[in-house]
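Minutes, project check-in
Item: structure for the 212-residue chain
Input as provided by the requester:
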Amino acid sequence: MSAAVYSLPALPYAYNALEPSISAQIMELHHSKHHQAYVTNLNNALDSYATATSSNDIASQIALQSAIKFNGGGHINHSLFWENLTPPNSPDASPDAAPTLMAEITKTWGSLQGFQTVMQKALLGLQGSGWGWLVKDGQTLRIVTTKDQDPVVGGEVPIFGIDMWEHAYYLQYLNGKAAYIENIWKVINWKIAESRFNGSREDAFKALRASI
């Protein structure tokens, strides 16, 4: 039994393309070191799991579950995250690129600003490390948070996520989480968000499948 082998997806922009919202230094470390580590550790865990399965080693299979969940979640979350960001001067960074999604956001939260206020509260309420997500649950929009590297599971479609691990912002913003959140809105890829909103969960994960 051979395990799938995942690879680090290339960014659709340069490391400095999201400045000044996110520095080139953070982007390079975040992508080439942190995300790469999740990919490497996921592949190692899956390989060990395949060996344990072939030898009917139930104890080892159980022991490997946490490593697969953590590193697999890290790979899933970051693959979605890179794709839902775009340079601030791109037309895709304008909410006008997501008319259908904007209508639903306005219906749910009253306005884009109303949504951003609720999202910021959820993000700042995270204890420790985690993620904040806008998801489509059936025909309804919801804001959800996940701990550590837990991905969005179940039937929800992840529209976009915001990484609240310190490695995503600390070198630039120190403990200024609110400033990081304020500035990341300037680099959200609303075109991708619109595409995910109008598509299925399978559509949202096409970038992840391409990394196999």
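Outcome recorded: The longest strand covers residues 130-137.
No further action items on this chain.
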